[in-house]
Design brief:
Elements (H helix, E strand, L loop, with lengths): L2 E6 L7 H14 L3 E5 L2 H7 L2 E4 L26 H13 L4 E6 L1 H12 L4 E5 L15 H22 L2 E6 L6 H9 L4 E3 L7 H13 L5 E6 L5 H9 L6 E5 L11 H19 L5 E6 L2 E6 H7 L6 H10 L2
Parallel strand pairs: 1-2, 1-4, 4-5, 5-10, 6-8, 6-9, 7-8
Antiparallel strand pairs: 2-3, 10-11
Helix pairs in contact: 1-9, 2-3, 5-6, 6-11
């Protein structure tokens, strides 16, 4: 394989640029050409494709977001859209494709694979909810961004003796809430994978007050309910002087951490190695600090992201 393409799709994640850089530089090192596809699958179908050089990825590793841009393109779910994309890849002489993104992006790569076009997925999403890997590109940066906010909120919570409800991202996965909640010393972490009882939440806040605690921090994953809905429900069990902070898209931005830069680089290099060998239909991940490659069809159809329940139990034991 002498010519490959790369695109980023779905929600942006810090470290995507580091992954693009690694793919481009490793490919050039191996004597291959790399073509960047702007705006994900939408750009693929439109033929918004350009050759990337070493200089194109210079001064990019420290930048958040993705310089190839991203766009949602549900039309790629149809066979017509997929075949149009393959037609464009063949037009540019591209023999294999690297897709950086989340679950929806993987589905596009899987579709290409089923049509016989070699595609490899790299997990890029702050939610850390992709099966087949312990960690995704962008997750570490996101939880550190959230942690900085939690530390700041704690200062004002203490000053005013209030309960602060912090809503973080994570529709179907509570990893951001769990990791940042433990690291930030939150009194309670509410995630979609584990049921909770609001009466017990209120009782725990009151117990803390009774022993002289000045504040409470509750981290809620958006997949459970919004922070404002949570505050309204909590108010039914007493006046806890609750205030809500919705962190929103600030969790996606910013310069990637060292861990995300290294992880993205390892993923990108492995993707190029596999394509050079003529292999596709795979997704890259990390397990026990080892880079692995799994069948993308099997991973999507049979794999499932699982929250670390041991970590959740730990949070219950040390947060009160």
């Amino acid at each position: 394989m002498k010519r490959i393409g790369i695109l980023t799709s779905g929600g942006d994640a810090p470290g995507m640029n580091a992954a693009i850089r690694a793919v481009v530089r490793k490919a050039i090192f191996e004597g291959m050409e790399v073509y960047g596809i702007n705006y994900g699958y939408a750009g693929l179908v439109a033929g918004d494709i350009r050759k990337l050089s070493v200089s194109d990825v210079g001064d990019k590793i420290q930048r958040g977001g993705t310089f190839l841009y991203s766009a949602r393109y549900p039309e790629f779910g149809s066979e017509e859209g997929q075949l149009k994309g393959i037609e464009q890849l063949k037009k540019f002489g591209i023999e294999g494709l690297v897709v950086v993104g989340g679950d929806g992006s993987y589905m596009g790569a899987r579709a290409l694979t089923k049509h016989g076009f070699p595609a490899i997925g790299l997990p890029g999403t702050i939610d850390n909810d992709i099966p087949g890997t312990d960690f995704t590109i962008g997750f570490d940066t996101s939880i550190n961004t959230v942690l900085e906010s939690i530390d700041r909120i704690r200062d004002t919570a203490t000053s005013h003796e209030r309960t602060f409800i912090i809503e973080v991202m994570g529709r179907g996965a509570g990893d951001i809430a769990l990791w940042s909640g433990i690291a930030g010393g939150a009194e309670q972490v509410i995630i979609p994978e584990v049921d909770f009882n609001m009466e017990e939440v209120a009782a725990k806040i009151q117990e803390g007050r009774d022993r002289g605690k000045k504040h409470s921090l509750i981290v809620v994953a958006e997949g459970v309910m919004s922070g404002n809905e949570f505050a309204d429900e909590l108010a039914k069990y007493g006046d806890f002087h609750a205030r809500v902070t919705v962190l929103g898209h600030v969790q996606r931005g910013g310069s990637p951490t060292a861990k995300d830069r290294v992880l993205a680089s390892r993923f990108g290099v492995r993707a190029v190695e596999l394509l050079k060998e003529g292999k596709g239909g795979l997704c890259i991940g990390i397990r026990d600090n080892k880079i692995i490659a799994s069948d993308i069809v099997d991973t999507l159809e049979n794999g499932k992201h699982r929250i670390d329940l041991d970590l959740y139990d730990l949070s219950k034991q040390i947060s009160f």
